[in-house]
Amino acid sequence: MDLPENPTGAIFVRQQDTLVHLDAKGQAQYLGYRIKVLHPNALQLGNLSISWNPAGGNPVIHALKVHRDGEVIDVLKDARFEILRREDQLEAAHIDGILTAVLRVADLRVGDELEFSLTTRTDDPTLGSTSSGALVLHPEPGPGRYRLGLSWDDGQKPTVRMTPAFTAAQQAGKQALDFQFDNPPVVIAPKDAPPRYQVFRFAEYSDFADWNAVSRRFAKLYSETSQIGSSEPLMREVARIAKLDGGKLAKASAALKLVQQDVRYIYVGLNGGNLRPADASETWSLRYGDCKGKTVLLLGLLRELGIDAQAVMVNSSGNDDGLDERLPSPGMFDHVLVRAHIDGKTHYLDGTLPPVVPPSEKPLLPYRWVLPLTSDGSGLEHLDWHPAELPDSINIYEIDARQGFDEPARITSRTIIRGVAGLEQQVQLSAVSKAQMLSAFRQSLTGDTWQSIENVDWHYDEKAGASILEITGLGTVDWDDDGDGARSLALPGGGFNPPQRRVRTAEQDQSLPYYNKPEFSCHVTTVRLPADTRPEQWSHKRSFNQGMFGRNYYRAFAIEDGSLRMVRSYRVEEQEITAARAAKDNGRIADFDNSMGWIFYNPERDRPVVNRIDVPATFEIDWATDASACLSPNAA
Fold it and tell me: In this protein, which residues make up the domain named DUF3857 (predicted)?
C-alpha cells in the first residue's frame, strides 16, 4: 500500500499477510509484513522473536530485510537467529517443549521499512488432518493493508463461519478464501456488554461436523488411557479405597483426594501431550501430571470402584459465553475434569485442585458450558447460573470497647474466603507455621489501628469450602468527638460507593444487554458498647435495601445485649440486564444511599431502641456455615 502523504502514529503497515493452509498433515501458517517505522517507540519491531513446536518441523524464514532510501539491506547476510530452549512458564509447572529463536536487527532507524516473512507448522499427532482455528483481525490495528487467507488441499475443505466484516471483505477462490482490509477502523468492544459481544472480526474454520464429533474423538483417547491393569500398583489403591465405609460418594472422595494429594501438577505438552493425556499408570508411576493425566487417573480409579464417570472439557478462563454460537473446536477448551453420577446426583471432581476440595454438585468455577466426552458423542451442555447462596468473602470485625471510649479496644478480625481466592490462601498459608504467620502479621499490621497482635489463627473448613483467618489483639478506635460528650464512629465496611452509570458511546450498539460479573460480599461488624453507656443513648445511620443494575445493596443495624451490630452485603442478582433497565436505573443513581456506616453516642439521648431487623452479632453464629444474615430479607 502506498505511504500516505502525512502518516500519523508509530507505524504504517505497507502490507501484512496472515495465511493458513490446511493439508493432510495439519496446518501451515505464513506471516509476512513490511512495516514503515515512523516513531522511535516502534524501533522495538527489530527485536524479533519466533516460537514453534519442533514436533511440527522447523520454521522457514523467507526474508528479513530493511528498506532504506531505495536500498535493500539483507539482514540475514550478516546476522543469524539464536535458538533458545526456554520454558517461559516453568514457574507455573508448565513444560511444553516450545523452542524460541531471537534476533535483534542492528542499525534499524526511524524511516526504515522492516520486511519479515516466515512459515511455521502446527501438526498435532492427536488430530492429524482434522483442523480447526480462526483468522482474526485485531480490533485496534495500525493504519495500512491487511490480508488474511485460508486455503486447503483437495479433501481438506473445512466449514467456515465469519463475522459480517469478514463476509464483506471475502474473495472466494476454488480452494481458498482471502480477506483484504485497507485501513480497517478501530473497533471498540461495547462497554459492559456480556463477554460474547467482545469478540468481532474473525473467520473461524473447523473440520468437526459438530460438538458431538469433538466429544467422540476425545472420549476414545480418555477411555484408552484410563485403563488400569490388574497387576498394577494402582489396584492396591483401588482395593484400599473399596474397603472404606460411607458408600460410593465416600469412595469417590477418597479417590479424588489421592489424585489431588499424591500426584503433583505439571503440565507436559511434549511429544503431542498438549491434547493427548498420558496413561493412568504412567501418571501414577511418575507421580505428576497435568489436568489430562490427573483426569484419566481418576477415571480409571472410579471405573474400578464401580462409579459411573466421564471426562468433561471446560473453559476456565471465563471465555465460554457464546460458546454454543461458535464452530466446534477443541481449542475452545483449556481444562478437563471429571463428572461422576453417584446416588442419583451429579458431582464434579477436579484432580488439579488442592486436596481440601471434595466432589461437589457444582463446579468450583462458574462454567457456562461443558462438553462431556462420551463414546456416542455428546453436545455442549449449558450450566444454569443462580445468584450465590453464600458470600465469596465475609469480613467480620468485632470491636470490644467495653472498657470505655478512651481505652484501647480488643479487636477480632476474621475473614472467610471461598472459591479460587480461598484456595489460593489455603495453598499459601497451609505451608506456613503458626509462629511464622504470627510474626508476619505482626510485622505488616502493627501500626495505626493495631497496637498489638496477640494471636493469628488460620484453618480451611472443608465442609464450608472456606479459608478462615482470624486475627486478635488490641487496637485504637478512632472515635470522633462531637462535643458535649457525644461520640461517633464510621464502622469499617459500612458504606457503598454509588454505582456508575451504564452508558455507551454513540457509535456502539445501544440495544445490547449489560453484564454483571458474579459477586457476593458481606461485611459484619459488632461493637461491644462502653459499659458505662445505655442502649437508648445510641443510634446509627439508616438501614437500606436497594436494588440497582441487577445488583442488591443491603445494610442493616441493630442494638441488643450491650452491642451495636451491622451487616452490609452486595450481591449480583442478575448476570445480564437489558439496556432499557440500565437506562431506568441510571435515573435512580441520585437517590442511592452512599452514607458510611456511622454509629452515634449522645449522652442526652433517651429514646427506646427499636430493631426492625434481627442482626446477629459476630459472636452469635458460625458465619462460615450460616450466612443467611448477609442476604436481604427479600432475596430469592
Answer: 30-184
CATH 2.60.120 intervals, the chain: 393-405+477-630
Class of domain 11-206: mainly beta
Q: In terms of C-beta density within 10 A (0-12 exposed, 13-18 middle, 19 or more buried), how is residue 396 classed? A: buried
Q: 211-382 adopts what CATH topology?
A: C8orf32 fold (3.10.620)
Q: How far is CA 334 from CA 66, 213, 337, 417, in A?
A: 39, 18, 11, 25
Task: Dump the DSSP string for 112-131.
Answer: -EEEEEEEEEE--TTTTT--
Distance between CA 401 and CA 398 in Å, rounded? 9
Q: What is the DSSP letter of 92?
A: G
Query: Residue 153 region, left (φ>0) first, then alpha (ψ -120 to 50), else beta?
Result: beta
Residues of the chain scoring pLDDT < 50? 90-92, 270-273, 636
One DSSP character per residue, 328-344 reads P-GGG--EEEEEEEETT
pTM of the model: 0.90
Q: How far is the C-alpha of 195 from the C-alpha of 318, rounded, in Å?
A: 8
For the chain, give every residue range classified as CATH 2.60.40.3140: 11-206
> Strand ranges (DSSP E) for 300-378?
308-314, 335-342, 345-349, 369-372
Predicted local confidence at residue 273, as pLDDT = 46
Domain ranges in the chain with CATH number 3.10.620.30: 211-382
State the alpha helices, DSSP H only, in 90-210. 164-169
The dotted CATH code for 393-405+477-630 is 2.60.120
